[in-house]
Amino acid sequence: MSIGILERFKIGLWRDNPGLVQLLGLCPLLAVTATFVNGLGLGIATLAVLMASNALVSATRRWIQPEIRVPIYVLIIASLVTCIELVFKAWFPDLDRSLGIFIPLIVTNCAIVARAEIFASRNPVGTSIIDGLVMGSGFALLLLTIGAFRELLGQGTLFSRIDMLFGGEPVRGLVLAENGWLLLVLPPGAFFSLALAIAAKNLIDMRRKESSAATPRRARILNR
Amino acid sequence: MMPDRPFWRSGVTLAIVAAFCTSLVALTWQLTADRIEENRKEWLERSLQPALAGLFFDSPVTESMITVPPPHELPGSDAAIIYRVYAGETPVAALFVVSARDGYAGPIRLLIGIALDGEVTGIRVLEHKETPGLGDKIDTSKSDWVLQFDGHSLRNPEPAKWAIKGDGGQFDQLTGASVTPRAVIRAIKQTLTYFDANQVAVFAEPPKLDEAQESD
Questions:
Q1: Which chain B residues are closer than 8 Å to A67 by Cβ?
Q2: Residue A218 lies inside a defined structural domain of this protein
């Protein structure tokens, strides 16, 4: 079974988006997306861990006995997250302080274990890295979209504190309004934003289904 | 179901993977440790500067830290941190890191700079969990509320006037939040009182000037 890279991107970014469709990794998704920069930062960190863990799980898949695979995934993922955390502390200290506990908590993002178990343990290294790239991008894209949405409406700004990623003096970003709709910055705003994003995706899929015969996949809790 | 391989093989595999992962983390730590320590010091020094507006001092503030273990007369029940600020060997000011315990949502960690004459040189909120949009205006990234204390002391205004206007005091309140500003003002007043009474003790222990110069 071989699928082109373009097709894989369509699957990861849209059809099987880890956040929108598989509803995995919702804890960080809801917690850090109050601003665009936070969403982007955690998105990049998760993407890096996912690619590296897929690569390592895939590279070692022939030597790992099935009965000990889960502790091995946990070991690999936990070590990679620790490395990423150190890298963030060294090169993006402000972002690290802003994301706080959610960088170490990438360990508990079930999207990563899910990709190790479903994909990387059964596919060659190259394909697994690409899978990590597309799934991670899908997750990161959702994080920064929700981050931008909540920041824009909740705070009236966009790209505030972008210096945390690219260096320089602290900036307030594009200030479009002095005050925003507070609710969106608070935790309930995260749930509302995610619900809107899922609804928008389903709506677009339904429109497409009406015009073609393709079968969309809607959000549902995976229970297997 | 019995695995068709001997059990020890699983153990060996786990040990090998664990050793590999540990070396990976150790290597990353080796490569980042210096930078992380540098960042931490730089951030601390940088975060202390705003509370020292208009003062002349010439040694890194972080080198002259002392901790005051509880119980103490300062706000908060945890250990308070005091950074002494010197120009040469002359004390100029002191920076207090204390917790206002009675915030609306948990303790508020405050940085309070006080010059030798008892005037506030600057106050910053280091950590808080106050309500976004209401109590969080004590943070300088949200509003300038906390700057109104600069230049004030226990003589200006008199101690009884250290309160929000709604309570008969001199200082501005925050719309929609009264618990938060009360807690902050109480903590500032208590710290001012402490420094007034304990100035000699605060500067009793000499700063680590020699050590600071050696490390340059």
A1: 3, 10
A2: no
